[in-house]
Amino acid sequence: MPKKVYDFRGKQSNISRLIRFDPEAFVHILFYRLLIPVSIIYGVVLLASLAFAGLGLVAKTLTIIVWILFTPQVFETAKAISVTGSRGIAFGHLNESYRFILRTRYSKKAGGYSLFPYLILALWVIGFIFAVVWWSI
Prior knowledge:
The protein has 137 residues and is an all-alpha fold.
């Protein structure tokens, strides 16, 4: 009989359990779960808009919604790249002595890696603004 493992934080399917100990992960998972059905609807509307020109506004509206729902995924991906690129120094929950050893051994500082996700997020938002302005012209 397989061994049962219990997680005192709650079931994995219950994403509200994340609010207490990792609110950023809660936002990431919530937006991800919302993005799945919205992206299916978005794909159907995009295909239909190729045949029916009247669906252009609906497609643009859904593009904006998908863009907003995808924003945490972009940020978390950039953050993961920063964590792996800096070997955990940026955004890692490491004790100070271990961080000192990593900095000494690999001569890396977290400065650029810590800024990278926010730079990507800024570019993402600028792209969103450009898209909205372009559609309104």
